[in-house]
Design goal:
GO molecular function: glycogen phosphorylase activity; pyridoxal phosphate binding
Region (Disordered): 1-18
Protein name: Alpha-1,4 glucan phosphorylase
Strand order of the largest sheet: 7-10-11-4-1-12-13-17-18
Radius of gyration: 28 Å
Biased composition (Basic and acidic residues): 1-9
Largest sheet: 9 strands, mixed
Structural class: alpha/beta
Bound molecules: N-[(cyclohexylcarbonyl)carbamoyl]-beta-D-glucopyranosylamine
Number of domains: 3
Number of helices: 34
Oligomer: single chain
Cofactor: pyridoxal 5'-phosphate
CATH class of the largest domain: Alpha Beta
CATH architecture of the largest domain: 3-Layer(aba) Sandwich
Length: 836
Amino acid sequence: QKEKLEDSTPKQLSQSEDARTGLSVEALKKAIFNNLFYVQGKYPEIATRNDYYMSLAYAVRDRLLQRWVASVKQYLDGRHRIVSYLSAEYLLGPHLANNLINLGIYKEVEQATQELGINLQWLLDKEVEPGLGNGGLGRLAACYMDSLATLEVPAIGYGIRYQFGIFEQEIRNGWQVEDTDNWLRRGNPWEIARRELNYEVKLGGYVQHYIDRDGKFRSNWIPELTVKGVAYDTPILGYKVNTTNTLRLWKSEAPKSFDFQSFNSGNYNNAVNQKIVCENISKVLYPNDETVSGKILRLQQQYFFVSCSLQDMIGIHLRQGDKIEDFNVNFAIQLNDTHPAIAIAEMMRLLVDEYDLEWVDAWRVTTRTFAYTNHTLLPEALETWDLELFGSVLPRHLELIYEINRRFLDEVTIKVFGNNNKINSLSIIGEGPRKFIKMANLACAGSFAINGVAALHTDLLKSTVLKDWYALCPEKFSNKTNGVTPRRWLVLSNPKLTSLISSKIGESWIKHLEELKQLEAFADDPEFQLAWMGVKYEMKKILCNRILNKTGIKINPDSLFDVHVKRIHEYKRQHLNILHVIALYNRIKKNPDIEIVPRTFIYAGKAAPGYKMAKLIIKLINSVGEIVNNDPDVRDRLKVVFYPNYNVSNAQVIYPAADLSIQISTAGKEASGTGNMKLSMNGALTIGTLDGANVEIREVVGEENFFLFGLTAEEVAKKKKEGYNPYGYYLENEELKMAIDQIASGYFSHLDDTIFKDLVDNLLYHDPFMVLADFTSYVTCQEKAALAFQDKKSWAKMSILNTARMGKFSSDRSIREYCDDIWKVKSVSVHLDVKD
Ligand code: F58
């Protein structure tokens, strides 16, 4: 008996190892089956789809864990410099498929599930995506995490574990209706709660000052409330490497010691209330993009995650036995916009108040640690905090910011002597009826590097919003044009195109996207063109089905798919696009037999719940759709679709099916855009203004493969200065006038002439984003695009060339630039200690 047991031990051990790490179909099957039994407590006959999803997810997570532990160990043992990305948002999208691709086991898992009698796609569709971001900025953070791991760069992403992410959008009677995003309701197999990793964060209260025994001036912050941040870690695996970095998101809780007194004295309500206040901090993501309102809870969120993150980094640093003064040797911290910029003041507080550094030493460490990325030029998106409100949440930081500002302005005054305008513009504290704190100025003063996210955007930063900063410290400025990860946005979302590309040029383009250039050789090859457009057609058919299921609208896969997907905002000009739809519709009404290229206008995007005009634009799109889609004269030649609840999963289905990518923001307003890159990578041609990264996309794909229209940023600024009169444009263009008159008169709204009044008045008398000024140029350019679409061969060629020339827009390129120019970090290859 005993002998038998001993005999079987090593065998069992290797079996269980295999079940948790093995990548073969057999091992994967066994792992899924085991998890179904041991994790979900089910057997196949009674297992639900979610049980199978969980079983597979845990099987995949086991395989990540081995790599994750090895990565952490290697980073710490080898004492490598670490990049720390601070972002209030991460718009990750579903993990499962991405992890299968990065592990290189997609095919194996497909087979394993099939052999178990389940369909992999069915499980993939079950995953609820973590929508912990609003739009481009949050998605960029997610792409950068993928590239950091793929390039084997030691990195940690820090953020907030919102219990509710970006709201879910439904369309009812044409209007957007919001529903809470309860993404955690079925549990989250991708995170590990690290209860032992927690930090206290103070809020509110007041500061006491005193002289200590050694005669040193000291500050003691007595908070009104203390909250606890608990770490939740998610592994981020790179593509076909072992490197698995950590995304550490903080959840807020009440500390253990919390309001014991009230509780003991029977004041139960008070105790419970305080607990709720603590938990509220990480409860929900603010759903605004491009506008910020100075809400206390938002400031608390920002400070909460920044403080936890800095305490965590300092802990890591000190545990390595290094001196606090050398913090900047071990860490480079990137601020994803100003949302985490309070980190600069918090770093000073920690160094001066908690670690006893002298001010100048603390400031030296701080200003060698931080770098700041700006994502917007829109004045309404530049963060400021009412000084009084700020002081009520962060009294000690207010003092520190005054001191930072005093010392900074002392220096500046010497340089710009007498120029009060400059001093005011550089000051971190704004004066007015009420004083306010300018977070962009805090970020600029406390960082060693400042960057914009596309060439035009960086130039405009230097010449407008941050002009005085550029004059003061030009050496801090550089451009880092955004990029997107080809793993999610091509390999995962467009597997057929991926295979077609790889059949010609091999697979190494997935890590070296410039290699797509080799496709140029096939751009004229009729067979390749046919195959290329064949894939596009298949992806269009898949989207047709989705649209039919979601909206009941039947669309024609042969029509030109005109795709306008992004957050709904006036500057992105979804209304310019709908005016074009109306103009085409009216042409058909005027002459029902007119030759017209059949088109499907596909819109998707969320409006901030409080943004009236954006919500009205959604209603307008749906109202126009209702008339156009059902008018027998149109004979299905035009269709307007609003695809509800735009998120990462839906974007993955939409991009591959696009023919025409609509990038029509008012020039100078879109910092970069990243959807423009994803669409072009998937072979869509762009119709766009010279804005953000469109400029660089046009540069690389060639002007003959890009439909350009509209005013330039310079012309926009000039027109505004000279006094822009939209009404003149309205009178001048008959098609425009007719479209606007129809909207106003209730043609699209059952003769209700009140619904769109605000929108119409705004366009006619203000038009802040120059929709009317660009209308004629847009319509003319769209005619060119339609004509081009009719020539299938030349369209195929242009489409191939778009993909072939998009190498520059891989987030790998962006991250390499950040690593070399800003962070000065090197990659570290991670080895697994398996002795199989
Ligand atoms: C976006 N900003 C830019 N902000 O608009 C876009 O051009 C750029 O490509 C992208 O960043 C990445 O650089 C953006 O998405 C937000 O969503 C913020 C959320 C929090 C409030 C302020 C806006």
